[in-house]
UniProtKB/TrEMBL annotation:
It catalyses: [protein]-L-glutamate 5-O-methyl ester + H2O = L-glutamyl-[protein] + methanol + H(+). This is protein-glutamate methylesterase. The keyword DNA damage does not apply. The active site is at 15, 42, 133.
Length: 335
């Protein structure tokens, strides 16, 4: 049975700790839950067995979303690996569009599409996770008349995502995981139609960019060029004028918050440091091998090779100390 025009749609996003959170949540939802549920878990390109896991714990059917699915009440749609899950015209759409927060699937694309497609019927839920994916999307849901729910950070396995949402969004409900099922049962009940809220043009433009629209005018209308480059494609990053939280986009559609950009750049820097360390270690080894070959036959070559190898050993030690100082995601601070 297709949902009525008054049926709310539930949109949930999580990262670290999210699988366990959803396993607990589905057990708290009654059979015949009156609304469709959409769930994004950061899984990257790894194959997900989450639908099978959820089906062993809860009475409502969980499945991997397919392009063209018509949402049904009492069904949990899980974003497949390496695809953003969107809702457009009341139908599920899957996209391999640009990564956001260096993730695909990501939470913000689902929440933005939910805001634009469902308006006041959208209920957005941010659960446990690192960094701040979902914060901007939850703001879009609120800006379009929907309801914002956040897991109590003190109750979350990883509190960063809930804390970010609370810092940047006028949240309607903050609940521990144990109380979320009962709250969603209330929020899933059909509600009288409310006056529609006209979605801000900025969200429409950003949704188009995330969907692969390369119209630079759209980007320039909502963002200003920054001095940073995109770690995914090397293009110029534009800083969005909406600064709750501070976010960036490049002209190809990749998107980052300031925190996810810092985290991604840290990963890039770490890889570069290890590559440099490996190269210097190899050169040091070659020089010492060269010194061994000329030992006793060419004193000048031997001495020069050992001198350069010792200098490289000092450089390697310095680089190794840098690699050991890589910060954790939480060290990048609040939004």
């Amino acid at each position: 049975m297709n949902p009525s025009a008054e049926t709310p749609f539930i949109f949930i996003g999580a990262s670290a700790g999210g699988v366990y959170a959803m396993l607990d949540l589905v057990t708290a939802l009654p059979a015949g839950f009156p609304a469709p549920i959409f769930f994004v878990q950061h899984i990257g390109s790894m194959r997900s067995h989450l639908p099978d896991l959820l089906n062993t714990r809860g009475p409502n059917r969980a499945l991997t979303a397919r392009d063209g699915d018509v949402p049904q009440p009492g069904t949990i749609y899980i974003a497949p690996s390496d695809h953003h899950m969107l809702l457009e015209g009341g139908v599920v759409r899957l996209s391999r569009g640009p990564k956001e927060h260096h993730a695909r699937p990501a939470i913000d694309p689902l929440f933005r599409s939910a805001a634009l497609d469902c308006g006041a019927r959208a209920v957005g839920v941010v659960l446990t996770g690192m960094l701040d994916d979902g914060t901007a999307g939850l703001r879009a849901i609120k800006d379009c008349g929907g309801i914002a729910v956040v897991q109590d950070p003190e109750d979350a396995y990883e509190p960063s995502m809930p804390r970010s949402a609370l810092a940047c969004v006028e949240v309607d409900h903050v609940v521990p995981l144990g109380g979320l099922g009962a709250l969603l049962c209330q929020l899933a009940q059909p509600r009288a139609r409310r006056l529609p809220v006209l979605p801000p043009m900025s969200w429409r433009r950003e949704h188009a960019l995330g969907a692969g629209d390369h119209n630079v005018e759209n980007l320039m209308a909502i963002a200003d060029p920054s001095t940073f480059t995109c770690p995914d494609c090397g293009g110029v990053l534009f800083e969005l004028k909406d600064k709750r939280p501070v976010r960036y986009r490049c002209h190809t559609g990749h998107a980052f918050s300031l925190r996810s950009l810092a985290h991604t750049q840290e990963q890039t820097t770490d890889a570069a440091l290890w590559a440099a360390l490996r190269t210097l270690q190899e050169k040091e080894s070659i020089l010492r091998h060269l010194a061994d070959l000329h030992q006793g036959s060419d004193a000048q070559t031997t001495a020069q090779a050992l001198r350069e190898a010792d200098e490289l050993a000092i450089a390697c030690s310095a680089l190794r100390r840098l690699t050991e100082k890589s910060p954790s995601p939480e060290s990048f601070g609040a939004p």
